Amino acid sequence: MFRFAITLGYLACLAMLATPATAQLLLPGTAEVAQATAPRRAQPVPNKPVSEEEAAKAARINNWTVGVAGGLLEGTFIRYAADLGKALDDADNLRVLPIVSYGAVGNVSDLIYLKGVDIAITYSDVLDHFRNVERIPGIERRVNYIIPMFQGEVHVYVREEIKSFQDLVGKKVNFNTVGSAANYTGGIVFDRLGIKVERLFQNNSVALEQMRKGEIAGIVHVVGKPNDLFAKFKPEPGFHFLPVEFGAKFEDYYVPAELTAADYPNLIAQGETVQTISVPAVLAVYNWNKDTDRYRRCVRFVEYLFDRFEKLRDKPYQPGWKDMNLAGTIPGWTRFPPAEALVAKAAAQASAEANLSRAQSTRATADNKAEQERLFKQFLEWSKQQKRR
Predict the structure, then answer these.
(1) pLDDT reading at 377 higher than 90
(2) Are residues 208 and 125 both part of a single domain?
(3) Based on the domain organization, do 105 and 214 belong to the same domain?
(4) Does the pLDDT at position 248 exceed 80?
(5) Which of 40, 96, 196, 249 could disulfide-link to 192, CB 3.0 to 4.6 Å?
(6) Beta carbons within 8 Å of 146's beta carbon, 6+ residues apart
(7) What's the domain range around 354?
(8) pLDDT at 389 over 60
(9) Same structural domain for residues 358 and 319?
(10) Does residue 299 lie in a domain region?
(11) Based on the structure, what is the number of domains in the chain?
(12) Is residue 44 in some structural domain?
C-alpha cells in the first residue's frame, strides 16, 4: 500500500510537468486530461504585410519616413524634434518620427549605427568625441549638419554648502545619463577646470531627490533654457547654480551665456544673473551615398525644412526657432551638400534682388541720390530679415 501511494505521488508530479514526451508515462486517461487543459501553443505571427494591397500601403508609408533622434524626454532636443514632426508632416509625402533617445552623444551614435535614424539633434562639441575617442574613420564626411539650432546652457546646480567649484572636489556629482550632453559637455567643463569629482551617471530628476537627502553635492545639466527640470523644481533653501566663467579654456566651441530670473524665477532672485557658457545645438544628418533611398529621404527632409521654416518660427512651436539662421555655420562641421545648395541659391537670389532694387531705385529717382540710398537701405534691412528666417 505504501509503495502504491509513492507511485501515485510520482505519477502526479509527472502529470504537473507533463509534455508530449512525458504524457506516455502517465496513468491511463491522464494524458488526455493534460492535453485537454494545456493552453494552446501560440501561432506564429504572419509576416507583414500579408497581401499585395498591404504591401503597397507599407511601401507608401515607409518611402518617405525619416527618423529623428531627439534625446531624453525631459530634455530640450525632443521638443524640437516634435516640432519637426508636426511642421514638416505631409502624410505619405513626408513623415518625420521623433525618437526618444540617450541625448547628444547617443544621438550621433544612433545616427551612425541605428536603423531608421537619418537625422539627429546634438551639440557642436560632440563630433570631437567621435574623432578623438571613438576614432571613427571619416566622421566629418559621414555626419554633416543641416543648420545650427539653439544654444544649450551649462547648468551646475549644487547644495547650499557648495560655494565654488573647488568645494566640489572629491564629492559626488551627477552628470545625467551616459550619452547625454551633461555627460559629455559637463565632463569637458570639469576636466578643463581641473575639478576632480566622483562622477555619477543617472537621470538628473532622480539625482535631484538625492541632492535633497544630502547624498550627492550637485548635478550638471546641459540643455536649452528654460528647462522643466529646474523651472518646475520646488527649490530647497540654499540650493543654487554655480557660475561657469567663460575664458580661453572654452573658446573653441562655447560662448558666454547667463541664467536669469526670467529663466528660473523659482531659483534665481529678481535682478540677479548667473554667468555660464553655452554650446550650439546642431541639426545633424547622415550623409548617405547619393544613389540610396535614405539619401533621397534626407534631401526631401531638408527641402521641406527650408520651405516651411517660417512656419516653425510662429506659435505653437519652440520660441528658439525665431533665433535660428538657416545660413549659419558650425566650425569643424561640414554642411550637408543639399542644404549647402539651398543656402547658396537663397544667397544668389538675395544678391540678384539687391542689384535689381538698386537699379530700379536709380531709374525711379535718377536725380535724387538721397532717395536712392534710402530705398537701398530699406531693401538691405528687408534682406537681413529674410536671412534670419
Answers:
(1) no
(2) yes
(3) yes
(4) yes
(5) 249
(6) 119, 283, 284, 285, 302, 305, 335, 336, 339
(7) 346-388
(8) no
(9) no
(10) yes
(11) 3
(12) no
